[in-house]
Amino acid sequence: MSSLQQLLAYVVVVYVGWRLLRSTLFRSPLDNIPGPKSDSYIGGNMGKIFDLHEAWAYQKEVVGQYGRLFSVHGLFNTKWLYTHDPRALHSIYVKDQDVFEESEILLSSFMLFIGPGLLATLGNQHRRQRKMLNPLFSAKHLRDMTPLFHDVVHRLEDALTSRVKDGPKELDMLGWMGRTALELIGQGGLGHSFDPLTEDVADDFADAVKAYFPVQAHFSLFTRLMIPTLVKLGPAWFRRRVVEVLPHGLTQRMKEVSDALEARSLQIVNDKKAALQGGDEALKQQVGEGKDIMSVLLRENMVASEEDRLSDEELIAQVSTLVLAAMDTTSNALSRILHLLSLHPDIQQKLREELTHARDDGTGKLRDLDYDEVMELPYLDAVCRETLRLYPPVRALMRIARKDAILPLSAPIRGLDGSLIDSVPVKKGLTVVTDVVGSNCDKGLWGDDAEEWKPERWLKPLSRALEDAHIPGVYSHLMTFIGGGRACIGFKFSQLEMKIVLAMLLPAFSFKVSDKPIAWNAAAVTYPSVGENSTKPEMPLVVTRLAA
């Protein structure tokens, strides 16, 4: 063992010893909050909460037993809060959002692997970045990009047609949705084409993006929870040297992914800068003709005040941030919709009929729908909303209390000593797990059928209880895109992408399940695989070309 490896091992041992001693000697304000018993003195309940397969059943079990707020055991049996109480969520994401900030684990991971982009920053730096980016995701800007979306999805339709022209065929629709999502954010977000779709072309950046979340999903719980400490060990060159000597395959693969993301991000930013300096003619030669998000961002950044201007490091980090935030979440949500439509052929046909009727140009031919037309189709909207409600791509998020606070509750809970608790004292450093699935599937708000996939629920008025709960999400009383100052900045981009893909594919193809079982893995972004034993993200469906 090298001296560097010995030093690292020593630091880890000291840290673990201190955490174990602290959890034993000091009492927590949460000791009176009910919750499941610890499964491990080291890992607490984290093994089940973050297990790729067991997490689904465990979430349902503990929420069913303990309700909207309870305690769980984190690393070294530290007490955490686990909640989907509406009033608590409003405090965490809106009222006291500066108190409850992103988890150090998540922030450190994004900072380490992709740099100081929107997902890795806090406070004034984060607000400054959002101020620059927010206008680029407006409905007005998306209307201008809608024709570009259609061009990409037409190529997807041609690619699928070429593969099923001789009859029904099993295709990996997760792979196709991923390629399409990457090309849509590439052209609409970065003014860059990654994939022609109509032919298979290898791309290091695309491979790195697709590998990012699946590789991290297979990090051990201990590795993930130790990242905030490890990234503070000395300067960047020292940390890189530490990573290079670690005899750990997943770590080395993650380093390769990070390096590929940074190299292409730097290239894209430099190319955009050169085009801007070349004037309007140079921009017209670019993909998207300079209307893409990154081109507009760079142009606005050049004329921004010094206090608002983003550094080159921040601009480079936004490239990978935009792609990672837009690709897996949207492509996996689209894949989930196609899977559900395959399991419910009656709903698939009903949606196909709505789309075919809307796209009929009066002569029997299908036309492209503009932004307002595709966004206003009621059954398409219902299918998308219901899928994002029941199956959010990100099932839970963590927040850390940066100072002492009081967390209010919508309704009191009964403590272990029998007392009624209507608010919870929160100490600085407390970890709070906010349960997106629990909020979206709360039977007290959504009814007894909350755990069933029923698009029709969106075609009638929602319950008064749901309206009165004031869920702090930016989208349809859901926590899928969360809310407040860290709400998903691109949720309208994602909606448009999903609806255009479905509007163009369903009139052209039918989708059926194959004989291969599909399992959905509870990673940072949920993804499908063939059975629970496979680590490969994929979702084979039988695709048939329909008569024109």
Short description:
The protein has 548 residues and is of the alpha+beta class. It is built from 22 helices and twelve strands.
Keywords:
globular; 548 residues; alpha+beta; three-stranded antiparallel sheet; 22 helices; 53% helix
Radius of gyration from CA coordinates:
24 Å
Oligomer: single chain
Estimate what percentage of residues fall within beta strands. 5-15%
Physical arrangement of strands within the biggest beta sheet: 1-2-8-5-3
Shape: globular
Which consecutive residue ranges, at least 5 long each, have pLDDT under 50? none
Q: How many distinct helices? A: 22
Total number of strands: 12
- Helix percent reads 40-55%
First-to-last CA distance: 66 Å
For the biggest sheet, the summary is: 5 strands, mixed
Give the integer mean of the pLDDT values.
89
Class from secondary-structure proportions: alpha+beta
Task: Explain what you see.
With 548 residues, the protein is α+β, with helices and mostly antiparallel strands. Helices cover 53% and strands 12% of the residues. The strands form 4 sheets. A 5-stranded mixed β-sheet has the order 1-2-8-5-3. It is globular, with a radius of gyration of 24 Å.
